[in-house]
Amino acid sequence: MMLPKASILWVNYNSMPIIDVVLHSLSAVNELDYPNLELVVIDNGSTDGSFNVIRSFLKKMKVRVKVWRLNSNLGFAGGNNVAYRLADDDSSYIVLLNNDAAPYPHSLREIIECLDSMPEVGAAQGIIYKMNRCEVETAGNFLNELLTSYSLKRNPGKSIPITYPTGCYAVIKRSALKRIGLVNRLFIGESFAYFDDNYLGMKLWNHGYKVISLPIKAGVHYGSASFKRYSLFRSYNIAKAWIARIFATNTKWKSFAILYYFKKFMMRRSRIEKMILLKAYIDGLKLARKVDEVFNIYKMPIITFPEEILFKIPFYLALQRYLSADMAKASSKFFDKIGVHP
Length: 342
Hints:
With 342 residues, the protein is of the alpha/beta class. The chain has helices at 19-30, 50-58, 75-86, 107-116, 174-179, 197-206, 232-247, 254-267, 271-289, 313-318, 320-337, and strands spanning 6-12, 37-43, 64-69, 93-97, 101-103, 121-129, 136-138, 141-143, 149-151, 160-161, 169-173, 210-221. Strands 1, 2, 3, 4, 5, 6, 7, 10, 11 and 12 form a 10-stranded mixed sheet that branches. A two-stranded antiparallel ribbon has the order 8-9. The radius of gyration is 20 Å and the shape is globular. The relative contact order is 0.13.
């Protein structure tokens, strides 16, 4: 029986500092136990020589490869949009794979076999491990009513619904993408990064599809290859995506989420950090306006807070540690409800 065709989207940008990890990712793709496969490689205008090293390596691969080099860095969102447009029209599955992630040989076949038997599911991920191959990095991602994100860091041992799959290694049905209107793009290009996999998950749930995590050992993620962990540009993109999620959804906590954002904004010490977060707020509003619908987060598995907390807003803004404690309690109750103990 012929397996459905899958297209892996793989984006590179200035990866010479971790070129061994990047080439290991490509080697792992080459070793996947999935013959009906193509790899679409996009280079986001690298200037450090990494593209030439990768292009030479690709010539040795048995997997069919398409390569495209962009003139500038379009980020995770823009790079994957280009890759999506280059993918074969008859591919039944679109696979997001970071260039610093290595899939296990069996993983793609097992995930797709599960998805083929689940017509109500639009996307899935398996269990992603840290580079030590022992600790779980994410078994699925959840949003809460403040639109901040939580990653489940243990194997749940069963299939569970999640808010969104990790963009590190996710498998999405092409038919679902078409039905929700994502024909020529996966993401909103202006998001650049961090408003991508969560955007996709919210859109799938909003249109009646489920998103799940499967108890399949999927692969290893070696860490961010495109952003310095504490760079100002990274902070800007994270903040912009957070604001976009707040204004693109119907959360009952919208006003508090905005106050919470500005509390973090005012706590920044340097003038440049304040300017960056202010710009992120403005650009996040613009990004939210590009979303062509309001996401109903109550259609999807999210971590909700007791409504009585809303009356304690001034208290929480003054004493953030109490908010953190109550958020942790809400998370614990949520996972108890779905039968998982994080």
